[in-house]
Amino acid sequence: MGDQTAISIKNVSKAFKIYMDKPLTLKEKVLKLRSNEYSNFFALKDVNLDIKKGETIGLIGHNGCGKSTLLKLITSILYPDSGEINVVGRISSLIELGAGFHPDFTGRENIYINASIFGMSKKEVDQKIDEIIRFSELGEFIENPVRTYSSGMYMRLAFSVAINVNPEILLIDEILSVGDVNFQKKCYDKLEGFKLNGATIVIVAHDLGTIEKICDRVIWMDKGEIVAQGEADRIIDLYTQHMNKQFIEQRQQEISIEKTADPVRIEDNSEVGNSAVKKTLDISDDNRWGSREVEITEARLVNPKGVTTNILSAGETVVIEIDYKVNSPQKEYIFGVGFYTAEKVLIYGNNTQIGKMKLQKINNSGTVKFKVSQCNFLSGNYKLNVAIVDGDHRALDFIKFYMDFTIVSNDKAVGITSIDHNWELV
Amino acid sequence: MFKELKAIFNYREMLVSIVRRDLRSRYKGSILGFLWTFVNPLMQLIVYSIVFPYILKMDQENYPMFLFIALLPWIFFVSSLQGTTTSIVAGGNLVKKIYFPRIILPLAVVCTNLMNYIYGLVIIFSALLLTGVDLTLNVFWLPLILLIELIFILGLGLIFSALYVKFRDLEHIVGNVTFILLYLTPIVFPITIFPEKMAEVLGYNPMVPIINSFRDILLNGKQPEWGSLSYSMIVGVCVMVVGVIVFKKCEKTFAEEL
Lengths: 426, 258
Fold this sequence. Notes:
The complex is a heterodimer of chains A (426) and B (258).
Chain A: E1 5-19, H1 26-31, E2 38-52, E3 56-60, H2 67-74, E4 82-87, E5 91-94, H3 107-117, H4 122-136, H5 151-163, E6 169-173, H6 181-196, E7 200-204, H7 208-214, E8 217-222, E9 225-231, H8 232-260, H9 263-270, E10 288-289, E11 294-302, E12 308-309, E13 311-313, E14 318-326, E15 333-341, E16 346-351, E17 365-372, E18 380-390, E19 395-408
Parallel strand pairs in A: 3-7, 3-8, 5-6, 6-7, 13-19
Antiparallel strand pairs in A: 1-2, 1-4, 8-9, 10-19, 11-12, 11-14, 14-17, 15-16, 15-18, 18-19
Helix pairs in contact in A: 3-4, 3-5, 4-5
Chain B: H1 2-10, H2 12-25, H3 36-56, H4 63-90, H5 92-97, H6 104-130, H7 142-164, H8 170-184, H9 196-202, H10 207-220, H11 226-251, H12 254-257
Helix pairs in contact in B: 2-6, 3-4, 3-6, 4-6, 4-7, 4-8, 4-10, 6-7, 7-10, 7-11, 10-11
């Protein structure tokens, strides 16, 4: 281990025992009333990591990926099953706020208790107490019992103690979201101060913006392993893309499950003329009007894999399919679609007439498809209109806000839609 | 071992502040406040000294003091054991979230109870003077006897607190065993009331010589019986060694088991 390494983690693995049914009492142990079986859950698998002195490291990953476990191993709250962890320097871990607070004691008394649990001596606290109280913005409330505090005050006090210990190595676990904007800014200033003083910082957070702002290096963990590490912006980009993809897949799965659980729909799709059960769409009259001489039986979004969905990845192909049924033939038909924002502002509307498609004779039932080769909306929720009108634009079946759908985009720009662009400095 | 002692030393402020917090929080908000520390044993003293002679019809001289001198170290013993047994689990929130030498938790319980005993000494000494007992220089053996009791209690406390994490029956077992032991240790009556054979067996309880020594130096103005007291000390040290080993072995998984 070089002089410059603050934390060195070598081949560290950690498994938790997940008991099927944990025996806790003598009777149960003797009688074997409950099974003693357990399975191992690997929170960390053979992790190697060197953190240099003065570095600020961000740990990211979805829930259960092992980042908090890693932090607990570094502070030696937990111990590894195999491998080695070496830490050089005094550790301060901001994993729990307000440790040892007693509700009946005043804020000032609790500062001493809390700080002593962080390993500070009374003398050190004496020197810092004014600064801690000032930082907490509690003013004269500091002389009141902690039980009278609001949760915001409580957290501010707890945080002020925690952040005013003078650490060589600081471990932070998702606690930076305390207080109002100004208080948070103070906390970040404090962290910047630690960085300047050469402290090593390891942060776990879900707020990627924070991580990107203050970390020199980001480590992305998944299933107990390090997936990627490197420059903050690069890793965070990779991670967001991965998370977006996963989010869509997950939602997609939920939709498929719903579909199979609803056999009536499948029947309907098979043969329209045959369906004894008259299918009615569940849409209130406020949002649906028209003579119903031609009726929309169903509309759906289909993703590139050919799966019906209501969540899409930006930049992909999407097809809107409208099933119709002619009850009494018309001279001409116009099919239309419209996209709205969640605030019901029209983004884009189009119909077969605009598309120079004259439909005069159509089958009694069938499907019209609106193919979008690239859907460039930004992340958010949107609404879809579908409609059939006749040649004179008289509504046959007009359904407003037929369905909601979600777009997940990797573009961090703001607004509604992405625009193909390049920045240039001339 | 040296490393562990150093870790405890580094966290002595935590120990002190937890003990102070526990001592003070007990009576926080009550009008008498800290005075309850004295009122509680005083009440016990009064009630026991009326009830027991009446029931037992003993001709023990100065029975209230005979009882009280033994009762306070016994309360120290029992409440320490009950407190330490649950100490790790009760401090689970800290154990799971923060690093500190885990031994601080049971240690703090023992220290808190030790402080309560020391406050009780104020009552003991004033009552001894009031009842006209002649104090001798042998009183100065008190810290030594107390230290032997402390070692024994801490050793047991370490074992129980570590095992309780996995084995939750222990709390009730400890409660019941200490309840029975109260009557098998010469607290409320002298050991002479048992048949000789039984008294001999009961003497193997390390608390018996400790209690007898307290009586010897405070009430009888004698030196402790060194033979039996050193037996208690040897047992105490052994228990302590076992306690440290058991605790060390278990403490690494505390955060997971809780």
